[in-house]
Amino acid sequence: AMVRGLDALFGRSAEPRPPPRAPSPHEAQAAVYTSAPADSAASAVSASTSTAPLPRIDAAEAQYWEYPEAGTGSEFRSYQHVMTREALAANTLVSLPTGFGKTFVAAAVMRNFLRWFPDGLVVFMAPTRPLVHQQRDACAKADLPADGEAALLTGDLPPSERRALWSTGHGSEGW
Questions:
Q1: Same domain membership, residue 48 and residue 121
Q2: What is residue 53's three-state secondary structure?
Q3: Residue 116 lies in a domain
Q4: In a domain, 152, yes or no
Q5: Pfam families, alphabetically (predicted)?
Q6: Taking burial as the number of CB atoms within 10 A of a residue's CB, which of 56, 77, 149, 151 is the most buried?
Q7: Which of 55, 40, 39 is nearest to 119 (CA)?
Q8: Is 131 helix (H, G, I), strand (E, B) or coil?
Q9: Is 78 a residue whose pLDDT tops 70?
Q10: Are residues 173 and 105 in the same domain?
Q11: How do residues 103-129 score in pLDDT, each as one tens digit?
C-alpha cells in the first residue's frame, strides 16, 4: 500500500488552501467538494452533540494513511488518490461520471477509517442493491473487510435479523 504521513495530509497551517491546479484532460470531469480544512479533530469532536462513546483510536495506525496499490485490479488514477486524501482530511462529496472510480475512493477511505478506529463501524449506504454489491466488490479489492466482518442490510432481511446484524456491527453471513 502507498503510505503517506498525516502531516503531509493535514499540513501544519490553518491558512486557507491555495486554489487547486487546473485539472488535466483526464481529470477534467472529476470534482471534489470539501468542507473547511480540518484544522483540529479535537474541535470537531468537542462540537459534537452525540452522547455515544467515541471509538478507540489506534495511535500507531493513525500516524499514516494507506492507498491501495495498483495490484488491486485497478489502474492508478491520480485524481482518485487526491480525492481519497481530501476525504480523509475533511467532509467530502466526490462527483464523478460513471466508471471513474467513486466506489474505489469510498473503499480506500473506509479502509483507513477501519484501521484508525479498529472498534469503530463504517456504514456505506446506497440507493440500490446493485450499488451495494458493487461497493462490496470494491472493498474486496481494497483488502477489506475480512469475511464475517461485514453485512449487507437490505429490505430482503426480516427486521429482527437486520436489528441483530446492526447491533453486532457484522454478521455471520458476511458479504
A1: yes
A2: coil
A3: yes
A4: yes
A5: ResIII
A6: 151
A7: 55
A8: helix
A9: yes
A10: no
A11: 889 989 998 998 899 888 888 888 888
CA 140 – CA 14 distance, rounded (Å):
36
In 3D space, the residue among 146, 129, 134 whose CA is nearest the CA of residue 105 turns out to be 134
How many angstroms separate the CA atoms of 86 and 94, rounded? 10
Q: Domain range holding 99?
A: 2-13+27-144
CA 123 to chain centre: 10
Residue type (1 letter), 156: D
Q: What confidence tens digit (pLDDT) does each residue in 14-44 have?
A: 444 455 555 454 444 444 443 344 444 444 4
Give the pLDDT band (50/70/90) at residue 1.
low
DSSP state, residue 71: G
72 and 35 within one domain:
yes
**Which residue carries 470534482 as its cell?**
31
Strands, DSSP E only, in the chain? Answer: 2-5, 31-34, 64-67, 92-95
| C-alpha 52 chain-centroid distance | 21
Q: What number of CA atoms fall less than 13 Å from residue 125's CA on the CB side?
A: 2
pLDDT at 26: 46
Confidence category of residue 145, pLDDT binned at 50, 70, 90:
low
Q: What is the pLDDT of residue 25?
A: 46
